[in-house]
């Protein structure tokens, strides 16, 4: 007590000033702590609804699934049985031809057949006469052996002539089929009739079936395989259909550019599509898009009603401000878009969603 009494007024002033400063500092710390708690309680959490990954979008055209330029039979066209643009059925006669060269060959073959037939008739008559002569002789007669030899030679000659005649008749039958030619439709579709400079008709058949034809870049090639599901829409008419890849080329298309090879793919389509129409082809991609801002230390906070119902640990591939997640989340779920350390299961989330 004596020591305190000995303090001068100046020393007492310093001590009081230090005490006041300490009180002020403690007050500031308490006020700041209360302010932080209040601020934490007043955070407005934004909520976002999860969506599927953006589909790969490609462009394409409508084409006939079958197109074939037909080959006319040999000869001169004598009749075109269809009109340009006509729809034909499989096996329907399209045109007929007449082959003068084949007809000339047929005439020659007919003459040869007639010649062989005469020769055969003569030989058969000879065989009959020799048989009759031998019938009147005994095997011991002097000229029996000679007649027997002549009969054998005549019979052999007749057999050879018959073989030649049979072969000639078969050739004649094949040649006769070439005189008049008939072109028929190999499948059902629409026929196009064009005429060459010499007046000869040229026919092209386009099948009734339609297909979507498009190209995919080498950078997206792995996103397509045979059987990949597609959503197809005609740009002009908005006609839609679902399909799947039926063919994916492994050879680069002719319009490929340097450092950007393209590969053709096809998919069958049905509906009110028109040949040549421009198509928008969407390829659905697996996975859910999670905004990067919604991920807090590898976790997202699922919201149900007005509170956090679940905390899910996620992993996936990062792409343009999002992480693509393939398990643990579903499209349509809601998550906190601006999470922090205060959130946990049961935390109330007051939002305007």
Helix/strand layout:
Elements: H1 2-6, H2 9-41, E1 47-49, E2 51-52, E3 56-64, E4 67-69, E5 76-80, E6 87-88, E7 93-98, H3 100-135, H4 144-179, E8 180-184, E9 189-195, E10 201-207, E11 210-217, E12 229-234, E13 240-244, E14 247-248, E15 262-269, E16 278-283, E17 288-291, E18 299-304, E19 307-313, E20 317-319, E21 322-325, E22 334-336
Antiparallel strand pairs: 1-22, 2-17, 3-11, 3-16, 4-10, 5-7, 6-9, 7-8, 9-10, 11-15, 12-13, 12-16, 14-15, 17-21, 18-19, 18-22, 20-21
Helix pairs in contact: 3-4
Q: Segments where pLDDT lies below 50 for 5+ residues?
A: none
Broad structural category: alpha+beta
- The total of helices stands at 4
Distance from N terminus to C terminus (CA atoms, Å) equals 69 Å
How large is the radius of gyration? 48 Å
Q: How many structural domains does the protein architecture include?
A: 3
What is the succession of H and E elements? HHEEEEEEEHHEEEEEEEEEEEEEEE
Largest sheet: 7 strands, antiparallel
